[in-house]
Amino acid sequence: MNFTRRLLLLSLASLASWAQLNVGTQKPEPSLPFKMTTTATFSLPWRIAFLPDGRMLVTEKIGPIWLVSAEGEKIAPLGGTPPVYWQGQNGMLGIYLSPTYTTDERVYITYIEPGEYGGSQVLARARLNAGRSPRLQDFEVIWRQMPRGKGGQAGGQIAFAPDGKSLFMSVGDRQRMTPAQDPNQPVGKVVHLTLDGKPAPDNPNAGKTGSRTINLIDPPRDTELAKTAKVVSTYTFPAENLTPAETWASGFRAPYGLAFSPSGELWEVEHGPSGGDELNLVQKGKNYGWPEVSYGKNYNEVPIPHPDTRPEFTKPVLYWTPVIAPGNLMFYKGKKTFPQWDGSGFISGLGSHSLNRIIFDGKGGAKTAERWDVGKRIRDVEQAPDGSLWMIEDSNPGALIHITPK
Length: 406
Description:
The chain is mostly beta strands. It has one domain: TolB, C-terminal domain (Neuraminidase), CATH 2.120.10. The chain is about 5% helix and about 40% strand. The strands form seven sheets. A five-stranded mixed β-sheet has the order 1-20-19-18-17, with no helix packed on it. The chain has a four-stranded antiparallel β-sheet with strand order 2-27-26-25, with no helix packed on it. A four-stranded antiparallel β-sheet has the order 3-4-5-6, with no helix packed on it. The protein starts with a helix and ends with a strand.
C-alpha cells in the first residue's frame, strides 16, 4: 500500500465521533525521572538536528547554525548561512537532515528571509560540509512564501514522509489571521512538497493554480478587528500562484510542531491565542478552522466562536486552556536509554516551562501522560542516536540541556 493511501485510511479511521479533551489544567509530576545537565549556551536557540555520528546542528534565531559535538560542546558556526529577518518570532528557524543524507549530505533549512515590508518564510537546501571548516555548500532556495510581510508565528517545521520521497512543512499565519482561510495564500497552511520544493502530485488540489492577485491587509495582532482590517495594497504574483496545488491542509495559527508518529500519522501542535493550544491529526484536505473558531479567545478579550458551532472544521484531538505554549513535537523511537517511552510523543512547553509526554494509540487518538516542570522555557526537544534526549532553552543565553536517566 503506498504512503498516501495509507495516510488517508488512517485519517478516515480517526476522531469524527470523539470528544475533544482540555488537558490544560494538568498538574506537573512531583519529581523528575531524569537528570538535566547543561553543556553549552546559545543566543536564542531554536532547533536541534542530529548527525548520524551524534554531533548536532543547533540553529540560533539571530542567524548562525552551530556544529556541536556529541557531548554538547560548541565546535564552530557553519559558513555559508543565509541572511535572516530577525525580529520577534522571526529569524533562523530549523535545519533538517534529508532522508538521503547518508549518500548526498543534504540538509533542509527554514528561515525568514529579509525583504519588502518584513520577510517571507523560505525553504532552502544545501550540502553540509561538516569537516574542519564546517559550512553549507550548493545553497539553493526551493520554496518561498509570497507575498512577504510583517508578523510572527512563522511555523517552519518540516516532517519528511515515511517513504522519504516528499516533505510536509508548516507555515504559520504570520499574525494576519484571515489569510489562513484564503486558498490563494500559503500562510496558515501545511504544505506538501516534493524534495525539490514542487507541489506534491497527490495533494488535494494537485495541478490547480490560484488567483494571480490578492489583497494585502495590515491587521492588528490576533484580534477580531483583523477580519475587517483595511486593504493596504494589492499583490500580483510574478508567475502562477501554486498555493492551492501545494496545500495539504489549512486553518492553522502558529504550527511549531509537525511530526510523523511511528504508525505513520501526521501530527501538528500549535499555539492558540489567549487559550486553546491544539494537538491536531493532520488529514488530507481538512480545514482546522483558524481564525473562524478556537478554544481560546482574542487577546482583546473578544470571544472567538467555539469549534462545536462550525462542524465543517476539523477539531483538535487535545487542547490546552490554560496554554502550555508548545515549542515542538517529536516522537521517541527505540529501546535505548528510555525504553519505557518507545512510541511516545514529546511536546516542549515554553510558557509552562514543561516537558510533556503524550501517548498515541496509532488510530488517531492521543492522551496525556506526564507533565514535568523543568524550570525553563523549552523551545525544542530531540532524540540523540544513543537514545538520550536533548533540549534547548528559549532564552538569551539559552541552555543546551542533556537529559539522561537518574
